[in-house]
């Protein structure tokens, strides 16, 4: 249809509408409205104090978060309207952390709306690879923006912002405490630590709970043992056996390569931790001819005839050894703990 044949278009009141008017024309930027803080220094100072107050409240809330974490018991339940019965610890942590984060955000928004420059600037699109002139302009704009933000001139704002931002991460650091109790020296000792020369602990069979005698261990055999008194019905059995499990192997004395480990044994009977030093898997695969024992999880291999040193696989340490001897009845006994920490390596371990 030609332009001559186009019907006339009229507005709601019968006025003619320009046929070629662009409905998506760029309206341009609205005229800049001067804010009160732009022309009144007293108003700017007041806004500065308001922002600083929000940052200060954030710092106080973070401190309250840490104090709540230390002071309140997670099992203490209280009634708080309208939430009902809640854990006072969870409630306090949620409120204080929420206030801390909200005040930082609200302070930043209030700062931007009242004190930072709000002049809108239009810039043309450019190629992805910036030219030297564009890079210089970006740096210049950044410096101008930093200057207009008053970050360098308004020391109160700068100090309180840095303070609130520095304190908030402490909330996350405090939550790391919930990963569990501090191990202290627990990683260095097992249930065998209670054994002394004056009060030794008998080695009992893992299967029968009967004391093991030296004559029960044959050359080439592998026997699993635990401390006497560690009952499977005990509430802490699984936790204890993960540290206390022992494997006994009897090697002909002339085949023992490491004399130091031989001295910790009795008549060729050597007692090693059953827990792999890689990630703590239980070891059970034994080669009689080579005296090698294999961890089934990641194939770490230890030579029991050579101090249980690692000969293959990702394990980083030999298996800890338990010094044993016999009592007057011929029962195998331990008079102390393993000669090294049991299980996977950790940073304090040499």
Put simply, the count of helices is 8
What's the CATH H-level homologous superfamily of the largest domain? Rieske [2Fe-2S] iron-sulphur domain
Q: Determine Rg (CA atoms, Å).
A: 38 Å
According to CATH, what is the topology of the largest domain? Rieske Iron-sulfur Protein
| Number of individual domains | 2
State the separation between the terminal residues, measured CA to CA.
90 Å
Q: Return residue spans where pLDDT drops below 50 for at least 5 consecutive residues.
A: none
SSE series: HHEEHHHHEEHEHEEEEEEEE
- Look at the structure and give the CATH class of the largest domain: Mainly Beta
What portion of the residues fall into strands of 2 or more residues? 5-15%
- The average pLDDT is 86
CATH architecture of the largest domain: 3-layer Sandwich
Strand tally is: 13
Indicate the percent of residues in helices: 25-40%
SSE topology sketch:
Elements: H1 36-39, H2 41-71, E1 77-80, E2 84-87, H3 88-114, H4 132-148, H5 155-167, H6 169-175, E3 201-205, E4 222-227, H7 237-244, E5 246-250, H8 259-264, E6 269-273, E7 285-287, E8 292-294, E9 301-303, E10 309-312, E11 321-322, E12 324-326, E13 332-334
Antiparallel strand pairs: 1-2, 3-4, 3-13, 4-5, 5-6, 6-11, 7-8, 8-9, 9-10, 12-13
Helix pairs in contact: 2-3, 2-5, 2-6
Give the structure's gist in a few sentences.
This protein has about 350 residues and is of the alpha+beta class. The chain has eight helices and 13 strands.
3D architecture notes:
The structure is a single chain. The mean pLDDT is 86. The protein has eight helices and 13 strands. The chain is elongated. The protein has helices at residues 36-39, 41-71, 88-114, 132-148, 155-167, 169-175, 237-244, 259-264, and strands at 77-80, 84-87, 201-205, 222-227, 246-250, 269-273, 285-287, 292-294, 301-303, 309-312, 321-322, 324-326, 332-334. The longest helix is centred in the N-terminal third of the chain and has 31 residues, at 41-71. The strands form three sheets. The chain has a seven-stranded antiparallel sheet. It folds into two domains: 36-121 and 132-179; 186-334, Rieske [2Fe-2S] iron-sulphur domain (Rieske Iron-sulfur Protein, 3-layer Sandwich). By secondary structure, it is of the alpha+beta class. A hairpin with a 5-residue loop joins strand 9 (301-303) and strand 10 (309-312). Helices cover 32% and strands 14% of the residues.
């Amino acid at each position: 249809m030609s332009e001559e044949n186009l019907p006339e278009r009229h507005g709601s009141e019968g006025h003619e509408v320009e046929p070629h008017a662009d409905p998506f024309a760029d309206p341009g930027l609205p005229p800049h409205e001067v804010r009160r803080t732009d022309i009144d220094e007293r108003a700017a100072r007041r806004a500065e104090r308001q922002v600083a107050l929000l940052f200060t409240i954030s710092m106080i809330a973070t401190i309250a978060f840490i104090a709540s974490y230390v002071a309140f018991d997670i099992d203490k339940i209280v009634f708080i309207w309208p939430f009902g019965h809640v854990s006072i610890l969870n409630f306090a942590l949620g409120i204080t952390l929420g206030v801390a984060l909200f005040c930082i955000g609200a302070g930043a928004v209030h700062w931007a709306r009242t004190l930072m420059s709000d002049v809108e600037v239009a810039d043309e699109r450019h190629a992805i690879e910036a030219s030297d002139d564009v890079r210089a302009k970006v740096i210049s704009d950044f410096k101008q923006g930093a200057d207009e933000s008053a970050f360098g001139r308004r020391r109160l704002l700068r100090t309180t912002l840095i303070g609130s931002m520095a304190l908030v991460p402490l909330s996350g650091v405090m939550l790391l405490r919930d990963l569990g109790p501090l191990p202290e020296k627990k990683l260095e000792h097992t249930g065998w630590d209670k054994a002394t020369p004056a009060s030794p602990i008998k080695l009992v069979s893992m299967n029968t709970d009967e004391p093991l005698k030296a004559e029960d261990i044959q050359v080439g055999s592998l026997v699993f043992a635990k401390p006497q008194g560690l009952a499977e019905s005990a509430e802490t059995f699984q936790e204890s056996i993960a540290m206390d499990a022992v494997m006994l192997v009897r090697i002909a004395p002339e085949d023992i390569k490491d004399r130091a480990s031989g001295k910790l044994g009795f008549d060729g009977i050597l007692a090693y931790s059953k827990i792999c030093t890689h990630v703590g898997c239980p070891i059970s695969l034994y080669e009689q001819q080579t005296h090698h024992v294999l961890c089934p999880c990641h194939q770490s291999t230890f030579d029991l005839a050579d101090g249980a040193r690692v000969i293959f696989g990702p394990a980083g340490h030999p298996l800890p050894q338990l010094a044993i001897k016999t009592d007057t009845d011929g029962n195998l006994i331990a008079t102390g703990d393993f000669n090294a920490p049991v299980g996977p390596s950790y940073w304090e371990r040499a």
